[in-house]
Specification:
The chain has about 300 residues and is of the alpha/beta class. It folds into 2 domains: about 140 residues, Rossmann fold, CATH 3.40.50; about 150 residues, 3-Layer(aba) Sandwich (Rossmann fold), CATH 3.40.50.1370. About 35% of the residues lie in helices and about 15% in strands. It is built from 11 helices and 9 strands. The strands form 2 sheets. Strands 7-6-5-8-9 form a 5-stranded parallel β-sheet. It is globular, with a radius of gyration of 19 Å. The structure holds phosphoric acid mono(formamide)ester. The site of phosphoric acid mono(formamide)ester has 10 residues, from helix 2.
């Protein structure tokens, strides 16, 4: 296997196991770079990356920007509030005008599912999905995979439980596709009002009782509860959500001995997870963030088509 099968990373639903494994294998060398005193390699010298964020982000945006800088790429950061989007310019015109200034790769976050695919239809650049509506967030799932893989040395056969708003979570979707492709057993837990109608399509065990969901789990990945959903009547109150689905220390006895707690952030402490669990020695939440930067370096490198010696 020489490279990835696609020149874009739009999602993980149809990404083959060989590509996922190639990305995970490539992360190790970049993980070593970010632990160095001088955290920079020439791998993407001469390549220009546009970070096109139409939605807020802390981890993903900063992580991509640092990944690009540490690979010696040139970076441009686009934000809607300071651009001509405010004057009504369309997405197509915006990206085609920026591409006319000679860019090579685009990292895009947008509230509408399918925007990364749309960009592949009107741009020549490599496109990386940094989160599109409730569709997918592939680099988040890849950093979750890498973190689990480094701890257990495998993904196949592990029982991974994803807790939260299954209907609206792009992180859950990308995790499901990736975990299942890599042979993990996936369980979903959350309120029935936040389960999509077609939940069986995912091929996961589905639980509306958190104790049953967590029973015998190796990994628990707790998702942010999107508080705006409460206004839409999808759960009665924050307190009720916490009582029924919040992950707390009492749940830890249900898990396998060598269990791991994860959360993609941003966290609502005291709502979907207690601080005691989030800050415990079984939590890898900050390790996920560190690994995320190396995962994004690996993805940028592999999609660029660069050979290591070309960047030197
Ligand atoms: N996990 C995640 O996507 O966080 P941000 O929204 O801060 O990028």
């Amino acid at each position: 296997m020489n490279g990835l099968q696609s020149r874009h990373l739009l999602g993980l639903e149809n990404t083959p196991a060989e590509d996922i494994q190639l990305i995970l294998n490539t992360v190790d060398s970049f993980r070593e770079v970010i632990d160095r005193r001088i955290k920079r390699v020439p791998t993407l010298r001469g390549i220009t990356v546009l970070n096109l964020f139409y939605e807020p982000s802390t981890r993903t945006r900063i992580s991509f920007e640092l990944a690009e800088k540490r690979l010696s790429a040139d970076t441009i950061n686009f934000s809607t509030s300071t651009s001509s989007v405010k004057k009504g310019e369309s997405l197509r015109d915006t990206v085609q005008n920026i591409e006319a200034m000679k860019i090579d790769m685009v990292v895009v976050r947008h509230s509408s599912p399918g925007v990364p695919y749309f960009l592949t239809q009107c741009m020549k650049s490599n496109i990386i999905n940094a989160g599109d509506g409730a569709h997918e967030h592939p680099t988040q799932a890849l950093l979750d995979m890498y973190t689990i893989w480094k701890k257990y040395g495998r993904l196949d056969g592990l029982r991974v439980v994803l807790i939260g708003d299954v209907m609206h979570s792009r992180v859950i979707r990308s995790n499901i596709w990736c975990l299942k492709t890599m042979g993990a057993s996936v369980a979903l837990g959350g309120p029935s009002t936040l389960m999509p109608k077609e939940v069986e399509r995912f091929g996961c065990d589905v639980y509306t009782d958190i104790d049953k969901a967590l029973d015998g789990a190796d990994v628990v990945n707790v998702m942010r509860i999107q508080l705006e959903r409460q206004q839409l009547g999808m759960f009665p109150s924050q307190r009720e959500y916490t009582n029924l689905f919040g992950v707390n220390s009492g749940h830890m006895k249900l898990l396998n001995k060598n269990y791991t707690i994860m959360h993609p952030g941003p966290m609502n402490r005291g709502v979907e997870i207690t601080s005691k669990v989030a800050d415990s020695n079984k939590s890898v939440i900050l390790e996920q963030v560190t690994n995320g930067q190396a995962v994004r370096m690996a993805v940028l490198y592999l999609l660029s088509g660069r050979k290591e010696e070309e960047g030197e």
